[in-house]
Amino acid sequence: MLKHIKELEKRSNKGRTEYIKNYLKLAGVSFKIQKFRQRILNGENIIITDFCKQDDRAQLLLTAHTNKYFSSPGANDNASGVAVLLNVIDQLKILNLNNGSNIKIVFFDHEDGLAYIDGSTFYVNNTDLSKIKFVLNLDMVGAGNTVVICPKITNNNGSNPYVNYLLKYLTQKQITYFSFDLPPLLVGDHVPFVKNGVPTITLSMMPERDLGHLKKVLDSSKLSQLVESLITRFNRKKHPMFIMRHRHNDWDTSEYIDKLSLKLCKKIVMDVIKFHRGRSNN
Predict the structure, then answer these.
(1) Could you tell me the residue range of the domain that residue 212 belongs to?
(2) Which of 84, 154, 173, 198 is the most buried (most CB within 10 A)?
(3) What confidence tens digit (pLDDT) does each residue in 221-245 have?
(4) What is the mean pLDDT of residues 1-11?
(5) Number of compact structural domains in the chain
(6) pLDDT score of 282
């Protein structure tokens, strides 16, 4: 997985998309391109079709955004999520899963920079959402062993069987986790799905030492959270959280990626897939 990240971090956003498409072609994985234009930007979503028939219902969507923030290498944000999904695809091929598995994998373009979750928004607006049972979005999964989940788990979304399974799994494996709603000015590809009533979470990883500061910020007023977001944008390298110091700047490189974080994230994804297949076969 680290090899993918090292390849992606030295490429432009267009180059990252081409790298993914070329890798899939070499691996013999079928996909289709969903081209779009939102505001002033053209983009491409990559949709893997090998593990899901077009008319399948009860689909599990696994997603990650491909683009990086302007000139940042974008190793953790979000070559890490892309790398995990590419490795998951390899694993699904080894397992000989066919297009009756109800698993769809989508790489979204334009989440960061001048874009504003454009790829995921276009996908949501041009997809039959009634076929989707659950969406697991990966974003910044290359640092730390603490799982953070957005949006905040409540009585409403916590009753979803996938969310319920994931939380039980994390508890059983003694993996620290925390769920929260994104502070002002921060976005994620789960947002357009959630707005349209599709059960969706974004899963990220962070060092446990970052969690204390995050909780402190979330316990503050909305105004304080807004100030924190503004400070973060203009002074990231002095931020007390490791993952924020290495986000949207030239410090977001593969040098700071933790292989164990990637392996843990992949393990979580594969166990969610196992749960999904068990439901589909019943």
Answers:
(1) 2-281
(2) 84
(3) 888 877 777 766 667 777 889 999 9
(4) 98
(5) 1
(6) 64
Domain CATH for 69: 3.40.630.10
- Cα distance between residue 8 and residue 16, in whole Å: 6
Regarding predicted confidence, which is higher, 280 or 246?
246
Mean pLDDT, all residues of the chain: 92
Q: What is the residue-wise DSSP string for the chain?
A: -HHHHHHHHTS-HHHHHHHHHHHHHHTT--EEEEEEEETTEEEEEEEE-TTS-TT--SEEEEEEE---STTS--IIIIIHHHHHHHHHHHHHHHTT--TTS-EEEEEE---STT-SSHHHHHHHHTS-GGGEEEEEEE-S-SS-SEEEEES---TTTTTSHHHHHHHHHHHHTT--EEE-PPPTT---TTHHHHHTT--EEEEEEE-HHHHHHHHHHHTS-HHHHHHHHHHHHH-GGG-SSHHHHTSSSTT-SGGG--HHHHHHHHHHHHHHHHHHHHHHH-
